[in-house]
Amino acid sequence: MNAFADPRSRAVLPRAASTAALLGLALSACGLSSCHKATEADCEQILDRIVELELKDQGVTDPELVKKRTEETKSRKREQLIKSCVGKRVSQSNMECIRTAKNAAEITDKCLR
Question: Is the Cα dihedral 98, 24, 65, 103 positive or negative?
Fold first, then answer.
């Protein structure tokens, strides 16, 4: 069964998909003194966290299913993620906010603004 055939899983893609575009805008606004250029690992960490939190909000907590859906989302959005995120400026405070966010909306509405 395709993991995205489950109607509850489809909600993961809209925010994850829009996040790649948002990253390009949000990260470029970072102040120069506390920033570094986002690496592929930074960008993957951001996307992983968003997917993890969206799945948690949907009640999906099985580690194997979370891993599978995260990998599926990353494989579908990898090119967009790299193009819009890698090389953009990101601060340590952005990354800390992402690590401690309670839900995916907090990441896109607070951490990446």
Answer: positive
